[in-house]
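I am writing to request your help with a piece of structural work I have in hand. Thank you for your consideration; the sequence and its tokens are set out here:
=====
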Amino acid sequence: MKLLMLGSGTSTGVPRIGNDWGECDPAEPRNRRTRVSIMVENDAGQRILIDTSTDLRQQLLANEIEKVDAVLWTHDHADHCHGIDDLRVMRYGRSNALPGYAEPKTAKSLRKRFDYVFEGQHGYPTLIELSDLRDQRLVAGFSLDWVEMPHGPTHSTGFRLEADGVSLVYATDYSEITPQMQSCFAGADLLVSDCLRRQPHPTHASLGLALELASRTKAKRTVLTHLDKSMDYRALADEVPKRVIVGYDGLELAV
């Protein structure tokens, strides 16, 4: 299995509009962060995209990705879904709509905000066939498990994907660790974790909480993502323990 980190930044990206780099060194390319999305590929070449970030077109072009086999959504916040229209090109040449999956509340919100994507409109075909995540245990050649995670006053979905004898967990936008999360994520070969900043935050994981999740789940390796402008790549890389990797746009890892 292979991880491709399409975007690694928080909702405003790094730098923020106004050329605000915060504590991040502008001379370090890995500090330039688009909004979070990942792609996971198995040995058979099947690909799952998780989230359609605001910067999806830019990410797909930068990584020369022209097709995926399924899409999963963690939740309906803008930075995780507002790039959905960029999937239109992936519908070209297909005989059917692209498979997509989300838990019911997220699916309801996506259908309301992007009705033309899921229903077709004015002669244009349906782009995505959106299905209930609760009914799925196998998606595009991957075994799938999932869990709802606290995200401040709302929730985000954490995913566990297994293929080729290894497991990958994607846990972004969570603010506490539940027993259900710990059980679902236990023993993952690779954990990709939310890590907004060092200080605690009401809706996101801090560095301490991300490292706690890695420890409690006994993840073999951990990648940090959803990083804000206070998280300079080199400073953070020097700070974190072994087996913890600071994520960046374009990072590729064999799981």
